[in-house]
């Protein structure tokens, strides 16, 4: 069981209040989506949650331990992993190596054990390989394990990003537009994978996504940001009919038409 909590979280860049009074409590196994028009503050919120930006207001805690002021690697060690809007793989390394690097943190052997290739080292390495392969199978990518990441089709690179974030066994997985630039078939596939990941691993997922059909199908709860403010929060059904949300997306006319 893990709990991510943001209370009155906010950040100001000079005169711009990019995120204001963001409040979230996420319990184990939940899938929560953050949506909103361009520039609404979604990625900035992710950046605060992962220690890339220092909030100027509010509190942030994982399992009641404050995350404010911690470095991104410390927050990662606490159990938060993320993917990025723009793919950030080690492009010249193989698919397998990309996953293994993310798993190394978990490796249970010392430098000297690795140097002398002890039995313990070999066993740990075998386990890492098996776990990496298991993840690749889940994503139906076992056939491309040896390919350089840069030679993967775009959709598979996005999938590899998710595998890499999962490889560190996070408590909370943050996905920043996992379906960006994908075709409808790939979007369906990623949706299925996210649902599977959630079932198979004890992980809560926080998702930024522009594809409404996907968000509406898989999210338990949705937060809608507009100009840094949370203008709505609720189940997909509640959000779909919310006039404020329709207005944020379509302008005042759109909201009126639907009222
Ligand atoms: N480092 C920064 N310095 C100054 N302003 C920033 C910085 N990072 C983000 N912003 C501003 O904060 C606001 C929110 O940006 P953010 O990228 O979080 O939006 P978003 O909702 O993720 O948008 P998109 O859907 O286009 O990715 C924008 O006005 C952006 O220009």
From TrEMBL:
PROSITE patterns: ABC_TRANSPORTER_2. GO terms for molecular function: ATP binding; ATP hydrolysis activity; L-isoleucine transmembrane transporter activity; L-phenylalanine transmembrane transporter activity; L-valine transmembrane transporter activity. Residues 4-252 form the ABC transporter domain. GO terms for cellular component: plasma membrane. It holds the Pfam family ABC_tran. One of its GO terms (biological process) is L-valine import across plasma membrane. Gene3D superfamilies: P-loop containing nucleotide triphosphate hydrolases. SMART domains: AAA. This is ABC transporter ATP-binding protein. It comes from Lientehia hominis.
